[in-house]
Amino acid sequence: MSRNLKALGLALAAVFALSAIASSAASATEASFPSGSNWTILSSTSIGEQVFEASATESVKCKSVDVDGSANADQEALTVTPTYGKTLANKVTLAEAEKSECTVTQSGVTRPATVHTNLCHYTLFAGNEVDGTMNITDTSVPPAKCEIQITVYFLGEFRPCLDVPPQTPTHPTVTYTNETYVSGGKTLWDVKVKSDIEGITFTRTGVCTPVGHVGNGAKYFGEFTVKGTDTAGTPVNLTWDPET
């Protein structure tokens, strides 16, 4: 009799344990980006240089990046459009080219550059309790397609150098930090995005040799903060809520 009661007690304990696990799983929440508006307009503030390293001797640097987009009140990913430096005409003087705010350095030689994102977007996934990820996403309508094109100023004009297609890098890590700022006398929340991405595929084109060479070990480092406003332009809170 006591043996049967003991077995029954163990069985009930197992049932309760499984129920607790199931309850915990049911109450778990996915990481997301809550905002203070049903529809939030996104903008950014750049923090320092944005760096794309194609190799140990070849890098692209831009003084700033601006991102814009929109999101609903609480979603697991943000899709934003990046803009690097200033948009310039193809054929310009050297003095005008130097206003681009981007440069390409190859084997110690630095020249003005431009970065055209050409219908490409960044998708920022909220991730989990530690960090998130970023993809280069093509949201264009065929026959159009996205391709990030980096050009370098050479012999009087910007010429093709590096192309970066839509992709999920092999190590697409981004880190999110909730921070505060003051607007209109109110303290609000925004999200700092720190990119530490490796394993980016690219192709050398035009004046960047060997033409047609495909690399897959490029890196991207940079930081910016993402802020939100409602559709009337009033600043609202935007935060990163990690998985729990």
Uncertain residue ranges: 1-27
Structural class: mainly beta
* Mean pLDDT value: 88
Number of helices: 2
Question: Could you characterize what this model shows?
Answer:
This protein has about 240 residues and is mostly beta strands. About 10% of the residues lie in helices and about 55% in strands. It contains two helices and 14 strands, in the order αββββαββββββββββ. Strands 1, 2, 3, 4, 5, 6, 7, 8, 9, 10, 11, 12, 13 and 14 form a 14-stranded antiparallel β-sheet that branches. β9 and β10 (about 155-165) form a beta hairpin. The longest helix has 26 residues, at about 1-25. It is globular and about 50 Å long. The relative contact order is 0.20. The model is unreliable at about 1-25 (pLDDT under 50).
What are the SSEs and their pairings?
Blueprint: H1 2-27, E1 33-55, E2 58-62, E3 65-75, E4 77-84, H2 94-97, E5 102-106, E6 109-116, E7 120-125, E8 132-138, E9 148-154, E10 157-164, E11 171-183, E12 186-204, E13 214-229, E14 235-236
Antiparallel strand pairs: 1-2, 1-3, 1-13, 2-5, 3-4, 4-7, 5-6, 6-9, 7-8, 8-11, 9-10, 10-12, 11-12, 12-13, 13-14
How would you concisely characterize the structure shown here?
By secondary structure, this protein is mainly beta. The protein has 2 helices and 14 strands. Helix content is 12%, strand content 57%.
Core attributes:
single chain, 244 residues, mainly beta, 2 helices, disordered N terminus
